[in-house]
Amino acid sequence: MLNLAPYRANGRVLSASLVGTAVEFYDFYIYGTAAALVFGPLFFPTESASAQLMLSFMSFALAFFARPVGAVVFGHFGDRVGRKSTLVASLMLMGASTTLIAFLPTHAMVGWVAPFLLCLLRFGQGLGLGGEWGGAALLAVENAPKGWRARFGMFPQLGAPVGFIAANGLFLILGLTLSDADFMAWGWRIPFLFSAVLVGLGLWVRLKIGETPAFAEVLEKGPPEGVPISLLLRHHLTLTLAGIFAVVACFAIFYLATSFALAHGTTVLGYNRTEFLVVQLFAILFMAAGIIYSGYKSDATSAQKVLTWGCGATIVIGLGFGPLLASGNLWLVWMGLSASLFVMGLVYGPLSVWLTELFPVHLRYTGSSIAFNGGGILGGAAAPIIAQALGDWGGTQVIGLYLALAGVVSWLGLMVVRRKKLAA
Fold first, then answer.
1. pLDDT digits over 341-363, tens only?
2. What's the confidence (pLDDT) of residue 334?
3. What average pLDDT does the chain have?
4. Dihedral of the CA atoms 61, 369, 344, 264 (nearest 10)?
5. Measured between alpha carbons, how far is 43 from 236 in angstroms, rounded to an integer?
6. What is the CATH classification number for the domain harbouring 56?
């Protein structure tokens, strides 16, 4: 029988880590969905539909380069001031940037100013999310009872599928209730506007929590580090780089199976947009299942082992991803996306506990945030762009090769950490 007592005793903390992260990821995902569906022709008009999509994905990638900046900025204050106040600030920045996108003029209205403002707000989204994940992970893991760190750490990770379901579910409803013309004219703005409501909910939950015991204990022993990033790079550079590589696979799987698959499937392959969104909504449930399984398995064995198994599975998934997507059969597409996202749960679920354990408490916010968001550049920002280029070169069948490469890169990062721990 499952022991639920630790969850009940820490319900408010776990809710804050889950709800806040879900809101942040909702904000991030609605941009990815809009980039796949409407931003190309609205903000980047060119003669080539492929070029429009590429420019739209480049604006999507911009946030991944902002995320490490946000990791440094928010990590600095998270390791000096505290987890709670820093998490509130990151949520407000992310929410404000997202809501303002709802009011942007298009290229037809103001010319080049439109894509400039879009990219500026996209950068703001990235800054906010750069400080979000590390703090949410620490909030859960540093409050966990002994032997429960991975199971507590899976709660901020579950914010990803929750946010995705909310984002794509809303786009699906709009697609069913609005004509294509109305959706392109104004319907796409509604999900961005709705973000303000969700941010208010996230703030209400987070303002009710206290500081983590681990950070409070560090403050009692002495003043915080003056410049955490400096100490991190001097004494923990190898582990930081290894952490960055280990994160690549989860980002690569997710953005190929969501934003890229939606764009490529509904344009190049000709799948119906509404049907494809339904397929993705059901497939994302397997990501949630993978996260929950990995949390329990990591506490029973180790996060290192689960991540290693996940990287091996990523390589296998990469070989079948393209052919299944190009099959023309939505059942096969669903099977491919579901398998991919379950594996994504294996390489994503244990990261909260695995990354935080790489660094001492007084550097954890900075270290885990930089590693996670640095991996986002290699795995997330590059994924749709490289996949689009691979598709243009060799067809849909070869786009999964990037996943196989990402699995190898993440496996190498895990091996570096394993050798350093054995040497110690």
1. 999 999 999 999 999 999 998 89
2. 96
3. 87
4. -10
5. 42
6. 1.20.1250.20
**The amino acid at 51:** A
Q: With DSSP H G I counted as helix, E B as strand and the rest as coil, what are the percentages for the chain, rounded to 5? A: 85, 0, 15
Show the CA angle centred on residue 321, arms to residues 268 and 52, nearest 5°: 30
Q: What's the one-letter identity of residue 247?
A: V
The residues, ordered by sequence, that sit 6+ positions from 97 with a Cβ below 8 Å of its Cβ are: 27, 121, 122, 124, 125, 127, 128
Rounded to the nearest 5°, which phi and psi values hold at 3? -90, 105
Spatial distance between the Cα atoms of 52 and 122, rounded to a whole number of angstroms: 17
Work out the end-to-end distance of the chain between its first and last CA atoms, rounded to an integer number of angstroms. Answer: 38
> For the stretch 297-320, what's the b/e string if a residue is b when 16 or more beta carbons lie within 10 angstroms of its beta carbon?
bbbeeebbebbbebbebbbebbeb
Into how many domains does the chain fold?
1
| Dist. CA 258–CA 26, nearest whole Å | 13
Which residue bears the tokens 């290192």?
A: 304
Burial 369-400 (b: 16+ CB within 10 A, else e): bbbbbbbbbbbbbbbbbbbbebbeeeebbbbb
Q: Which amino acid is at 194?
A: F
Token couple for 383: 């994924």
- pLDDT tens for each residue of 296-324: 999 999 999 999 999 999 999 999 998 99
DSSP code, position 112: T
CA dihedral (233, 347, 23, 16) positive or negative? negative
Q: Which two tokens stand for residue 105?
A: 């003029």
* pTM for this entry: 0.88
Q: Count how many Cα atoms sit within 13 Å of the Cα of residue 150 in the half-sphere of its side chain.
A: 26
* Dist. CA 283–CA 377, nearest whole Å: 24
Q: Which domain holds residue 65?
A: 5-423
